[in-house]
Design brief:
2 copies of one chain form a homodimer. Chain A contains 8 helices and 8 strands. With 221 residues, chain A is α+β, with helices and mostly antiparallel strands. In chain A, strands 3-8-4-5-6-7 form a 6-stranded antiparallel beta sheet. Chain A binds a DNA duplex (30 and 30 nucleotides) through helix 3.
Chain lengths: 221, 221
DNA sequence: AATTATTTTTAGATTAATCTAAACTCTATT
DNA sequence: AATAGAGTTTAGATTAATCTAAAAATAATT
């Protein structure tokens, strides 16, 4: 696998995400949309990536990422997410202000740097948005953590962590008796304010605001 | 000051260093040597940098960095040195393996990131090589720390820190009674093994090996 | 001072990444 | 099945950064 340019890495990452982890075919326009470039530019780049063996490409048929391409994409994603953890846990950024900076940091080339960073951060398994961090071989072991407010009515899940870990929010969770590990079933989503009615551990029904649901990270059952 | 490209930042940094902090004129060939490019490429880039007002340029006369250019160069140098401190102090790299990585990290754009990093590192004044870190305005307040073995015979200086802070080296310094703050005058440099004979606090003469002198950081009197 | 040698610049190409405009292919609809 | 519309690719340019080879200017040496 030859060295890829920064732009090539970004294309591969986009294709990986758009294809749902590499399984589906991706069309030219969707790549252009995501990368805010024009379809003509995508066609050019697609040919280059196909020449390097990172994607399979048949004209007018869309592209599919190869095993090699997937591996490269996952390494970039791994770096992105580790840097996000660094920015939030060590430098005190909020989780919604780190994406742009991580987009730059993800292209730094040094395998040793990344393994040391991983160790320094305590080998985290999720980034601050709840997305899983691939290991050095590109393996994603854990189920993704999802924000409660993004799930549809009827879903059953388990509370695994919070995005805002400020004491006022933790106090609130304590008060409503919603600790980590609680089983949550979404019973209703109110239309007028998006507050959520949940069944906790199958025994007690409570309602939390949209703002609270935005801060709860859960794993689907 | 418009946004500069990565290559432009590297040229400015090279010109800053070659000119001894911006004071002297710099010629085309020396820039080419330093950046491992050809003089023709340097001529092209010089015109671009002059157009942007970061350097003053008269054909065949060499270039001189402007105040604006100097400010940009110092910001890049600040980032480079802060990242070096991070790599050594936080990730456990040795001071002689961080340059290449810092060359990449110095181009990350985010003023907030740098001020947070500075704070996280405890507002360090020197990088792991002993070079001073400019502040956010580009001001270098402190005299540079220099490796003892690079100074000529006859120099008087003060010991301010070490590069290798392993316990075996600190034990050695303890044993020969050479604490931080000692005044050192170089009395002789042995030709056959580069060991150094020094006068400590004007009262006691001892000899240290080249290996030891390589690890002592001093400030000139 | 004239000529040689060195340094620097220009001219003309190349690679990477992008664009607009035009041509082409596929799909969906009549 | 023909065709209109959407999606995709090619053709031809542009910008940034680099190169080689040749020309021009400065510096050094006889």
């Amino acid at each position: 696998m030859e060295e890829l340019t920064l732009a090539e890495e970004n294309y591969l990452k986009a294709i990986y995400h758009l294809s749902g982890g590499g399984s589906e075919h991706v069309n030219t326009n969707s790549i252009a949309d995501r990368l805010k470039t024009k379809p003509a530019s995508v066609s050019d780049m697609i040919r280059k990536l196909a020449d390097k063996g990172t994607i399979d490409y048949v004209k007018y048929q869309g592209v599919q990422i190869t095993e090699g391409g997937k591996s490269t994409a996952l390494q970039v994603i791994r770096k992105h997410r580790l840097w996000e953890v660094f920015l939030v846990d060590k430098l005190g950024f909020h989780w919604d202000e780190v994406h742009e900076i991580a987009e730059q940091l993800e292209h730094i080339r040094s395998p040793l740097l990344i393994s040391r960073l991983d160790e320094f951060l305590g080998f985290p398994k999720f980034d601050p948005h709840g997305d899983p961090i691939p290991d050095e071989f590109g393996v994603i072991s854990s189920k993704p953590r999802i924000i409660l407010s993004t799930l549809p009515n009827g879903t059953t899940c388990t509370l695994v962590s919070m995005r805002d870990t400020g004491s006022s929010f933790l106090n609130y969770l304590d008060r409503i008796q919603l600790p980590i590990g609680s089983e949550i079933r979404i019973q209703a989503i109110m239309e007028f304010d998006n507050s959520v009615e949940i069944m906790v551990n199958g025994s007690r029904s409570i309602t939390v605001s949209k703002q609270v649901a935005d801060n709860l990270l859960v794993v689907k059952k």
